[in-house]
Amino acid sequence: MSGKTVVLGGSGAMTSACVYDLYRTSDFDEIVVADADEKNARRLVELIDDDRVTFESVDATSADDIARVLDDAAYVVNGLPYQFEENVLDAIVEVGDLTGVDLNAFDFDAVLSRSDEFAEAGCSLWFANGGLVSTIALGMVGCDEFDDVEDVNFYWGMWRLLSQTTAGLTDTVTYEHDPNVDERARWEDGAVINDLPPFSQERTFEFPDPIGEQETYVISHPEPITFPKAPIAQETNVDRIITRGVWHDEWTEYERTLHAMDAFDADPIEVEGGTVDPLEVAQSQVKRAGRQRDAEWRAPEELSSETEWTPQTILSSEVTGTAGGEAGTAVYHFEQPFPFFDGNEISMMREYGCYVGVPLSVTLQLMAEGAVNKDGIFVTETSGMDADRYFEMMEARGFELTEEQTPPKQAATSA
């Protein structure tokens, strides 16, 4: 495993852990933190203090500048905001012969339609990466316990205060609650049923502490669209798939308030001779609070002093089916470590984001060593990834996989 690796947006909240994990666990010759945020990028490089890790400025609004940064690279991680996706894809094709992973999970059809173009350019790109790799892998190991599967329920438990956020996360959470978004979906009997309302499809689910038992509801995640493509889902004849989530009470109250005040469809209002969008005003204040809170890097024990719990995301799957003629349920939980950055001073959201950043590093290394060998653009379900191997690599980095099984695996392996 050698070569130059470029991490686009590498000092962000979700990607800093990718850079740190590549530094700790990979043999790449050079790891470039490519970012417009020079201050935080240089601070991350200084924290790591390894000659292999360097900083380079990049203008994400320019495909040509992205291509400049990617020149002579063998590997790329795309952690830039999704509005720059087309520029990134154009730059990768222009440079050619690149292997990479992509955090973006929007515009599936448009991105996947470029797969042949990528293959012709000698490029491989693992799309919809990050935390989605973990949930899909949870579904895979759950389905593997049964001969036939009725339901695959995915759960995202996102437990952080309202002011523990980034601009991107704030937009994403509110997008997932937007009544005008038609991407909240479930898969049933071979068909996608979309345009489900916000806060619908409620189901009680118990996460590990500190989240505990919560009322979850459907969120606009792609698992119901993509998981049917997984070989194990097809082998076990999965009937139904849905993804639900829950946020800390502060976030739930904020999103319900936006609905109650009709912020998503409100016309601009006049304020002191100008006009403002009520939703943009509310979002801007949450983002400002997040920026102020996350600006200072601190020791891990000082990052969330007002809570008795550590801000975190817990990912879970709940699979029901039959094995050896006996009905059962397999529940898996996947929890992130704290602290991840070896006790170094860091920001809260960079610690929080390790559940996204580390999968980017692990999957890129799987591609580099040939354990995943696909051309063009693909997703986890079609990657050929060994889910057990993935979890072994994640657990070696401090993540924890726990299982609740009723009845025992494969009905005690057919007794």
From TrEMBL:
InterPro entries on file: NAD(P)-bd_dom_sf, Sacchrp_dh_NADP-bd
One Pfam family cited in the UniProt record for this chain: Sacchrp_dh_NADP
Annotated Saccharopine dehydrogenase NADP binding domain residues: 6-96
PROSITE patterns, per the entry: PROKAR_LIPOPROTEIN
Composition bias, Basic and acidic residues: 291-301
PANTHER family linked to this entry: CARBOXYNORSPERMIDINE SYNTHASE (PTHR43796)
Annotated protein name in UniProt: Lysine 6-dehydrogenase
Lineage: Archaea, Methanobacteriati, Methanobacteriota, Stenosarchaea group, Halobacteria
Gene assigned in the entry: lysDH
